[in-house]
Amino acid sequence: MLHNIFKTLAVLLLMLFSQNLLADQQMLSLLQELKAEIQTLKTNAEIANNRISELEKQLAQSQKPALVSSNPQQNPPATNALTPVASNAETTAPEKPAIRVGDVKGTFKIPGTDTSIGMGGFVKMDTLFSNVSAGRDKLGDQQLVFSQIPVGRAPGEHSQTTFLAKDSRLWFKSFTPSNWGDINTYMEFDFYGDPATYSYTPRLRHAYGSIGNFLAGQTWTTYTNISASPDHLESGTAAGALSTTRQPLIRWTQALSGFEIPIEVQAALEAPRSKVWVPNSIEKNASNDPTNLSVNPVADNFLTTPNAERYPDLVARVNFKPEWGNISFAALGRQIRYTQSATGLEAGNWGGGLNVAGKINSLGLDTFRFMAHVGNGAGRYTTTTNTFEDAALSEQGDLSLIKTFGGMVSYQHWWNKQWRSNLTYGYAAAKQPEFVNPLLNQQVQSVHANLIWSPISQTTLGMEYIFAERELINGQKGELQRIQFSARYSF
Fold first, then answer.
1. Distance CA 422, CA 12 (A)
2. Does 442 share its domain with 482?
3. Residues with pLDDT less than 50, the chain
4. Are 180 and 299 found together in one domain?
5. Which residues lie below 8 Å from residue 275, measured CB to CB, with a gap of 6+?
6. Domain tally for the chain?
7. Is residue 137 domain-shared with residue 20, that is, in the same domain?
8. Is residue 98 part of a domain?
9. pLDDT tens profile 62-102
10. How many Å apart are CA 117 and CA 491, to the nearest integer?
11. Cα 200 to the center of its chain, rounded Å
């Protein structure tokens, strides 16, 4: 009995031990499976971490600025931290080059090129109070035009107020370096295209390009030293000052070395255009000639523009630029012609002119500016448009060139760095032939005095007093007195 009990207990213990051993084996197998899964997860995590690190390196590399090559054509477009990067590297589009600062102040680079471009200008409002009116929709009510100053006192033509913003301007420029020299272009507009007082038609002022020493396009005539022009609020010019003519031209500028002061020489071929006084008898034949379409009578001065020029105007100028300012000497040569196919009339003469001009530094910021000139057949380059003719045609068909002379002096005083004043006097006259119309101009003179305030570089406010007078051949005189207020805001 006892033996059976022990036997039974032994069987039970054996069975229990077998079950525990089986459980332990199952547990061990489970642990091995878990270990394998953990190892697999660890391996996958390491692969993922490596991929993330690789992507981070690629992102950092794409945000670094490109190295600059010595050859501008090999430089890759610049990028910065604001450049967008696609999240999927396989579908990332080519990055757009960022806009960079240009090589000239106030410009920016066209992406993918070496060209720097810029734009600017100003908005200007002028208010003019005049003692006389030049007439309905006349340019003389908007700026100083000597040929439109009324002579005598016509009914209803005294006391004139004009508001205008025509002198507002917009310009564009570019700069491109090249092996042939710097390539520059410049274009500028104002709104004087229509003489009507309240018509704002754009007008091309400048449009030229240059490469190295060579310039071609429309800009200031080489005959006039623009730096010597007085600092006025009104957009005309003083009597005795050379006209601020802008015209198509071809110019070469050459700096000279070996001198103590900088010197440059300029030579130009410029668009020819002349004003000729023609008797009514001859002008009538021209007007009836259907092949002569260039006749353009100018009522104010009884002039015609024959448009019969054969040669360009020839201009040469020497500029001296010492530390105390600049002085220039210029010479002009031109042919004046009048032709008429109806009668076979052809008349012409060669003329020209000489002038000296400059801007000299005075005390502090003050400057002294001057111009003096004499010419024979150079009336177009003297003071404002149509003041004097270039030549006059007699009844016999002889062409006489008109001798002109004049000068201008202007002093600019700076009260402080914000306030300045200018005082200018100018005088010009013509030696007219006896056979011309006595209503042509004999002489003109003017005085400008102003006070200008520039609180910041982008803003200029000022007031200017203008006195101008013209005298005809017959002795009659016309006088203009004007007060002008101007506000200019640059951008």
1. 128
2. yes
3. 1-2, 5-6, 9, 11, 13, 16-17, 20-23, 64-91, 289-301
4. yes
5. 298, 301, 303, 304, 305, 379, 380, 386, 389, 390
6. 2
7. no
8. no
9. 554 443 333 444 444 443 433 344 444 444 555 555 567 77
10. 15
11. 19
List the domain range (segments joined by +) for residue 454. 109-490
Cβ partners under 8 Å of residue 453, min gap 6:
418, 419, 460, 461, 462
Nearest of 208, 204, 203, 145 to residue 174 by alpha carbon: 208
Task: State residue 144's pLDDT score.
Answer: 95
Specify the DSSP element, H or E, that contains 39: helix 2-62
Mark out the alpha helices in 271-338 (DSSP H runs).
280-287
- What pLDDT does 75 receive? 43
Note the pLDDT tens digit of each residue in 306-324: 877 889 999 999 999 999 9
Which of 88, 117, 149 is the last residue before a domain boundary?
Answer: 88
Inter-residue contact 78 to 63 (CB < 8 Å): no
Beta bridge partners of 409: 370, 425
What's the confidence (pLDDT) of residue 7?
A: 54
pTM summary value? 0.76
Residue of 338, 335, 340, 363 lying closest to 350 (CA atoms): 335
Say if 61 falls within a structural domain: yes
Would you say 246 and 385 are in contact if contact means Cβ atoms under 8 Å apart?
A: no
Q: Do 188 and 52 belong together in one domain?
A: no
Given this model, what pLDDT does residue 296 score?
39
Q: Using CA atoms, how far apart are residues 348 and 315, in angstroms rounded to an integer?
A: 19
326 and 466, same domain (yes or no) = yes
Q: What is the structure's pLDDT at 143?
A: 94
